[in-house]
Amino acid sequence: LRRSVSLPVAVALLAAVGLLAAAVLDLVPRPTLLRAGFTVFGAVLALGLFLASRGEWPADVPAVPPGNAAKLVVALSAAGVLLTAALDSRLLPFAIVLPLGFALVALQLRGDPSVPSVLTQLCALFLAPRLGKYLTTGFYYGGTDTFAHVAAVDLLIEARYTPAIPHGYDLYPVFHFLVGAVTHVTGLPAYDALVLSGVALFTLLVPLAYLLGTAVFGDARMGLLTALSVTVLEFFAYHAVYFYPQALAVLLILVAMY
Known about the structure:
Layout: H1 6-24, H2 30-53, H3 66-87, H4 91-110, H5 115-136, H6 145-159, H7 174-186, H8 190-203, H9 205-217, H10 220-232, H11 234-241, H12 245-257
């Protein structure tokens, strides 16, 4: 069943027919319908990737030396961050860096990938845009919770006891203890410690995803593809910078699952 083409084709057709029916019967507003179109796009893209993966890996895929590839992608990622800081804009640097970096990773995944090398590259490609966002957005408050948690960390550091944490988080103080510890050790303001802690911890999800994927699928390449998914999914990119207690809980749950 896993290799049968009928299931992914059926999913793509079901998504397309469902969207068409919703449009013809006027079941949902047009803006909602347009957003739902991404479901069809995703199903067709997944079908194309599935069909492309059914063949044998070509023997003439050019080999990319793992050490050289890792150095190149890390250098590209670092250059993207530096250019972002210099230009005060991350659009152009990462419009160049990310396609080149992911193309190089994809080329390695088609052959016989070196796990440490590819994971290093994926960590760099995830970390660099998050740092670019941190450098160019001033106070990035996400869904506004950042205001409250920065103030809570400042209160905790000033009062030096857990009941000072407001909003009921004194009962679950792990997040504020973590950010407060980073602030205390590094001397960074609470906001910077909060964001950089989230970026660092979510970057560690890349190798963790590899371990989970390898354990579930029993294949190193599938583990690397699982790690790759972390670097391109919006959820992880968003919450790495908009970091708050529930985002930390997701990390802890994934660690516990492994």
